[in-house]
Specification:
Blueprint: E1 3-7, H1 17-25, H2 29-48, E2 57-63, E3 68-74, E4 82-88, E5 110-121, E6 124-129, H3 134-139, E7 150-152, E8 161-162, H4 165-181, E9 187-191, H5 198-209, H6 212-231, E10 237-240, E11 245-247
Parallel strand pairs: 2-9, 7-8
Antiparallel strand pairs: 1-10, 2-3, 3-4, 5-6, 5-9, 6-7, 10-11
Length: about 250
Amino acid sequence: MKYCVVFLLLSMLTSGNELFAQEFKAMTRKEQLVFNRREKSLMQQFQEANLSWPAKQLYIRSFKQDGVLELWVKNSLTEPFVLFKTYNICALSGKLGPKRREGDKQVPEGIYYINEFNPNSDYHFSLGLNYPNQSDLVFADRNAPGGEIYIHGQCATVGCIPILNSPIEELYVLASMVKKQGQDFIPVHIYPIRFSNQQSAKAIQMLVGSNPEYYRFTSQLKDIYDYFEQYKQLPIIGITQEGSYKILSR
C-alpha cells in the first residue's frame, strides 16, 4: 500500500536558515510593531516556564468540542514536547465532523501544517492551514472542497479558528521564530474532541454510533492523539490512497 507521508516527525532543522533570515528582514511595519510588543513578553513567559528561548520547534493542536488551542514547544528532535500555553477558541462554526465542501462552515478535522503567514489579514493576523490535504481530497467535494482555513484574531468564523488579537499576535511571533530557527513545517492537529475527556467523548458517541465512516475517521485521529499523549513526540504519519491517516512508525 502506498502512503503520502505528511510529516517526518516534525520537520528537522534545515539548511534554509539564510533564506528564512532574508524573509524576516523584510517584515512589514505591522509585523515589526507586533514583534517589538510581544517578543520580550514571550521571552519572559518562557523563562518563567523554565523553557529555552527561542524554541526551535512548535506543535499546535486544537480541540473543537473543548474550544481550546494548545502550543507545545521543544528544542531538539529527541526531547519531548512541553506544553507552553493554551488559548481559548472564542467562536466555532459548524458542528463536530470534518470539512467536506465549500460553504459548509465546518472547521476541518485532521492533520495539517501552517502554509501561510498573513500579517494583512482582515482578522488582524492569521496563519493559514494546508486544507484540503491529501486525505480531504479523497472525501471532500471534488469540485468545491473549500479552502482558506486560518488560525486568526478577532472573534468571528465561518470555518476558521479565531483566538482573539492578543493570542494571535503571540502565536504569530512564536511561529515566526521557529520558522526562522529552521522549522519548515509547523504541524497543526485539529481534533473533534480531547479523547481523554469523558464528557467530550460523550458528545461524539452519538455521531460515530450512526456514522461508521466518521467512526473510522475519529479512530485514526485517536491513534495519533494517544501516541502523542504517551510519548510527547509526533509519529511519522502517512495518508493512504483511500484517504486514511496511519501511523507509520511507533
